[in-house]
Design brief:
The chain is α/β, with parallel strands linked by helices. It folds into 3 domains: 4-116, no CATH class; 121-227, Beta-Lactamase (2-Layer Sandwich); 234-390 and 453-483, 3-Layer(aba) Sandwich (Rossmann fold), CATH 3.40.50.300. The protein is built from 18 helices and 23 strands. The protein has a 7-stranded mixed sheet with strand order 15-14-16-17-13-18-23, with helices on both faces. A hairpin with a 2-residue loop joins β1 and β2 (31-36). The longest helix has 16 residues, at 4-19. This is Bacterial type II secretion system protein E domain-containing protein.
């Protein structure tokens, strides 16, 4: 019985051959045979070696014959047809894999010609790396080249941890294998590339985004792991009850815009998808434009951006407006054109959800102004702005409370309910409980998992004049008058409860430590 990995590998070989105008003829024991019209380049042969773990044998065929076979879409040629009988055809064998590689290739197992299990070292390394990363709850995997070869690091709860250093013999195979998995151009090493592929560990399905970047010693590759099954409900986002109620209230509006802001890796995508899940009903037509589609959602029409063919956010948005949508999700507002179309959609009977890369809710207003959106348009369209960050949670098994409280000076945007201080003390120094990360066999670092802190800004009519004047002082005064919790004060609430540490809040929000 041919296993799934073997079938996947053979499919990848065929796809790779088609990309390089080659014909996959056959694969047996230790030899992979292909046909080309001329000597293939080394990148192509190297990729075939690492995919299959076999010696690559190349037949030279006339160009007309290659084109004929490709036209017929017959990528597997019977053995009797591949033998050279024409003087124009010559056969030669690409040199055997070097001895070092053969040493690392001892995991190849062959039962017989029709039933073989092939697991090359590179395939085994990448599969195990992804599996281990998922088990360790990693969000990203970094393959980083250096003079000594690749180093692999994974990001767990926002912090990078070193995993392993593969042998130098895998330097070429690691980027080649990852590019093939994401259907990227393996021959292109000078330009950054982005892609995506699906991964299944027999329990859950994952969408994995890939990004390549040329560096001094080779291509750096980062994988972003997205769980396509486990989705958080709005109640699981960690929102305080008043903010959760306000968000649900705005999500039920027939039109308008809700913006989620923050830097890369702050959880904006999870928040947006949770909102979409909350809104997902058969009576609603929900459409999204994303770059790329990170998590497939049933019942939602998701369209990926494809810049290679000119299919950008603005172009898709114009098309979506002719698709009778009720709710539109725009993955990110990046330019003036996308901002203007999104605003017009929010003014004409559509609820629009989107993100911006800004540090706070007030910065979002300035960013919209810089994108050419007037203050009047912003106040009439935008209903709610949410800024957020992810902070590491203290391990409940080993956290320790400090006997001496910590004094917090001159905090604004806090309330008596949030950190148990009186309104008169908001602008004065006050103390809160301090918790410390210790580390145990459960967490190994003192932290386990992450949660979000939020800053909400409800757009009200009184903001219109301040926006039209572009007065940061007026905006700040109006923000304070709403008694909104800032990211910092929201973090202090979690620190007081022992959910995270003060050090983590200072680091994430950028406030200076006391």
């Amino acid at each position: 019985m041919i296993n799934k990995e073997h079938l996947l590998m053979e499919k990848e070989i065929k796809e790779l051959c088609q990309q390089h105008q080659a014909i996959f003829i056959k694969k047996d024991f230790h030899i992979l045979t292909i046909a080309c019209s001329k000597s293939p380049n080394e990148d192509f042969i190297s990729a075939l070696r690492f995919i299959s773990g076999l010696i690559v044998n190349v037949d030279i065929w006339p160009q007309a014959k290659i084109e004929s076979m490709l036209t017929e879409k017959n990528s597997l040629i019977p053995e009797r047809n591949y033998c050279s009988e024409n003087n124009e055809e010559e056969s030669y064998c690409i040199e055997r894999l070097d001895s070092n590689y053969v040493h690392y290739n001892d995991t190849i197992k062959t039962n017989n010609l029709h039933d073989e299990e092939i697991d090359t070292p590179v395939i085994q390394l990448i599969n195990q790396t992804i599996l281990t990363s998922i088990q360790k709850r990693a969000s990203d995997i970094h393959f980083e080249p250096s003079q000594r070869g690749y180093q692999i690091r994974i990001r767990v709860d926002g912090t990078l941890h070193t995993m392993q250093t593969p042998p130098p013999q895998m330097n070429t195979g690691i980027p080649a294998r990852l590019k093939i998995m994401a259907k990227l151009n393996i021959a292109e090493k000078r330009q950054p590339q982005d892609g995506q592929f699906d991964w299944n560990d027999n329990k859950n399905s994952y969408a994995i985004r890939i990004s390549t970047l040329p560096t001094l010693h080779g291509e750096k590759i980062v994988l972003r792991i997205l769980n396509t099954i486990h989705q958080l409900s709005l109640e699981q986002l960690g929102l305080p009850e008043p903010q959760l109620h306000l968000l649900k209230q705005k999500l039920h509006l027939p039109q308008g815009m809700i913006l989620v802001t923050g830097p890369t890796g702050s959880g904006k995508t999870v928040t947006l998808y949770s909102c979409l899940q909350y809104l997902n009903q058969t009576k609603k037509n929900i459409c999204s434009v994303e770059d790329p589609v990170e998590i497939p959602l049933n019942g939602i029409n998701q369209t990926p951006v494809n810049n290679k063919i000119g299919l950008d956010f603005a172009k898709i948005l114009r098309a979506l407006l002719r698709q009778d949508p009720d709710i539109i999700m725009v993955g990110e507002i990046r330019d003036n054109e996308t901002a203007e179309i999104s605003m017009k959609a929010a003014q004409t009977g559509h609820l629009v959800l989107s993100t911006l890369h800004t540090n706070s809710t007030l910065d979002t207003l300035s960013r919209l102004h810089n994108l050419g959106i007037s203050g009047y348009t912003t106040t009439s369209c935008v209903k709610l702005i949410i800024a957020q960050r992810l902070v590491r949670k203290l391990c409940p098994h080993c956290r320790q409370q400090d006997s001496i409280p910590t004094v917090i000076p001159n905090i604004t945007g806090s309330t008596e309910e949030s950190i148990s201080v009186t309104p008169d003390s908001i602008k004065q120094s006050f103390s809160i409980k301090k918790w410390n990360a210790v580390g145990c066999d459960h967490c190994f670092s003192g932290y386990y998992g992450r949660t979000a802190i939020y800053e909400f800004l409800e757009i009200k009519p009184e903001l219109q004049q301040a926006l039209s004047e572009c007065s940061n002082a007026s905006l700040s005064h109006l923000f304070a008058s709403q008694q909104n919790a800032t990211l910092f004060s929201a973090g202090l609430t979690l620190a007081e409860k022992g959910i995270t540490t003060l050090e983590e809040i200072y680091q994430i929000t950028g406030h200076e430590t006391v």
